[in-house]
Structures are given as structure tokens and as C-alpha cells.
Amino acid sequence: MRTVSNEIGGKRDFNTRTLDGQAILLLAVQALLGTANALSGTFLPIYLWKSSQSFALVGYFNLTQFVVSGLTFWLAGKWVKEHNKMNSLRFGVALSGLFYFVVLMLGKAAVTYAVPLGIMIGIGNGLFWLAFNVVYFEVTEPGNRDRFNGWAGLLGSGAGIVAPWISGWLITMSKGERGYHIIFTVSSIIFAVAVVLSFWLKKRESSGTYEWLHGFRQLREPGNPWRHAVPAIICQGVREGVYMFFVGLLVFLATKNEGKLGNFSLVTSLVALVSFWLIGRMLKPERRRAAMLIGSIAVTAVIAPLFWPLSYTTLLIFGIGTALFMPLYIIPMTSTVFDLIGSTEDSAKQREEFVILREAGLTVGRMIGVAAYLLVLPYMEDSTYVVPGLMLAVGAFPILGWWLMRNLVGKAAAQGRKETETSS
């Protein structure tokens, strides 16, 4: 039987690899969210660019989204810790669905409201992922955390295989904006289904008082492991801030065809699905450090094809390489950070504050990444090396992230296992 240290401070389980019903249900909610986002989110930057012909507008929309999401994490932390975290999760999903409905209603006029729309989806993402990460911590243990992350990546990749391909086909086959209207409508419906499914997740007990500046105090404390973990998380965010929207935009610009973008997502997501499944099954805490090093070097090396003439083929080589090796980096990174949160009974009690500290690092990193994108925009048309140079500059940050995390990867789990065996 799985111990529940994350909820009541009991003994942690380092041996259980199976996932219980609540963990599986949480994965199902995340899968629905991933499917809805894969249907429409993949093509939202294209929709905004086609309506505005402005790369800057796409950048400012994403910058607004990232900043507001980070602020929502911090401000909603008190609600999640002291009141009902499940309502935060449901409201976040509902607001995300409402976002696509509003985009649908606005049509091409959505570009006029890019910043307010960025605020809306930022709040929705912040509320959902804050609650999700806290519940994820509570329903997993060090022994099954890699497996949960592997399944999460596998389901996300599965959504990425089918949904964008269907969206690309619909947009290509439909005249005008009809295809976009269809996918935005379907996404809104899927979000509604996710809200309903979330009611089967048990209401989780709230305890403690929210400490607004807990994360900042960790960073000021000499020798605190979070002084290495947070900069590493920032490195992860720098890459994400650009890659989350710019890769799809590059594929569309190279092909001028949404169907090609759907095919790109299908192929790369299929590779990622297999990779996440294998690595999620095989990876153990003691192998995380080596896996993360290999992954960080590999995802940087696969950027090289972008320095060739930009085409669908070079982008596909880059995409397949990224999908193949990114799980080696992201699974150990995520598992180690959450093991660090649960490394002691006291830190587990402050799980909400640590989840917010993690998100603060991601937000800062994403802001840096988007700022770099906006800074090089004026030079993109004058040089064929600006785009691949930007992708390499932000895409190499995982190597720095590994260097910062190298002494922490696997350490929290190993230390906790030792403490547990000693106490036994």
C-alpha cells in the first residue's frame, strides 16, 4: 500500500512503482487538457500571425501569458494551500476552455485583444498547473514518480500525434477560417469534459498557513539546494519560452501549409511517445544524472540541421531528434525537483510554496527566452543565421541546467531512501 507522507508527513515509499487510481485519474485529466491544447494551441500562433502578419504580436501574447501565469501561481497559492485546491484545478481548466471560445467569437479581431487574451489564458494555466503540481506531488512517491512522468509524457505525445494532424487536415481542407472555428469549438468541449472528470478526483485536505515569501527565503539561505535548483529551472524555462510557440511557426513559414504542421507534430509526437514510454519504464533515480547529461547534450546537438537552409526536412530532423532525447532530460529534471520538495517532512509541508518557487523559475526563464526572441526580430530578415542562432542560444541552456543540477539529481531520493531505511 502506498504511504501518504506527502499529505500527512508519514513514511515515504521508495519501492512502489505502480500508480494508484487517483494518480491515473489525474493523468486522464492532464491527457484531456493536452488533447485540447494540441488541437488548438499548436495552431494558435499561426492564427495570430496570419491575422496580424506580426511576429512581435505573437511574442507579446506569449510573454503576457507567461508573466500572468507566474503571478497567478504566487497569488493563488494561499487559496490552494489553505482552502480547496481542486476548485483551483477545475476553474483553471474551465477558464482555458473559455479562452478558446472567446477567440472563436472574436475571429480575426482576436489580434486586437492579444494582451487581454494572454492574461486570460495565463490565469487559466496558472490556476490549473498550480493545483495539478501540488496534487501530483501528493499522489506520487519517489519510487513511482519517474513512471508517472513517463506516462504523462507518453499521453501528451499521444495527444500530439492525432490532434494536430486532424486540426491541420481540417484547416487545410476548409475554406477561410472555418477549420479554425471547428478546432476551437472542439477544444472548448474537451475542456468541459475535463472539468466534469475532475470531480472524481478526491477533495484533498488543506493544512498549514501560506507563507508568501517562503521561496525567497530559501534562496537567501547559504547552502540551500534550491539555490542550484532554481537557476537550473530558469534554464529549462529559457528554452521553453521560445520553443513552445516558435517551432510550429517556423514549420508553417517553411511550408505555408497547416497540414504540414500537423504531419510534423504527428511524426515528432510518435517518436516522443515511444521515447517517454521506454525511458519512463527504465529510468531509476540512480541513473538520472547520466541520463540528464546525455539528454542535455543531445537536444543541443540536434539544433545543427537548422543551420542548413531552413526547410521542412531540416525542421523534421531537428524535431525528431528533440523528441527522441528530450525525455532523457525532462524526466530526471522534473522528478528530482519534486523529490527535493519531499526530501524532508518539513519541506513536504511547504509543498505549495515550493511548487510556486519552481514556477517562478520557469516564468523568469520563459521571460528571458521571449525577450531574446523579441530582441532579434528586427534582424531575422537580414540574415539566414539569426533564427538558427537564436534556437541554439536558447536551446543550449539545458546543458547549463544539468551542470547546476548535477549534484542534486538523484540525491534527494537517495537521501530519503537512506533516512527511511535507517528509521526502519
Automatic annotation (TrEMBL):
Key words, A-Z: Membrane, Transmembrane, Transmembrane helix
One Gene Ontology term, aspect cellular component: plasma membrane
Domain of life per record: Bacteria
Topology in the lipid bilayer: Multi-pass membrane protein
Record bears the keyword Transmembrane helix: yes
Subcellular location: Cell membrane
InterPro entries: MFS (IPR011701), MFS_trans_sf (IPR036259), Sugar_transport-like (IPR052528)
A GO term for molecular function: transmembrane transporter activity
Record-annotated membrane-spanning stretches: 21-49, 55-76, 88-107, 113-136, 148-167, 179-201, 237-255, 261-279, 291-310, 316-341, 362-380, 386-405
Predominant place of localization: membrane
Pfam families xrefs: MFS_1 (PF07690)
PANTHER family, A to Z: INTEGRAL MEMBRANE TRANSPORT PROTEIN-RELATED, MAJOR FACILITATOR SUPERFAMILY (MFS) PROFILE DOMAIN-CONTAINING PROTEIN
Protein known as: MFS transporter
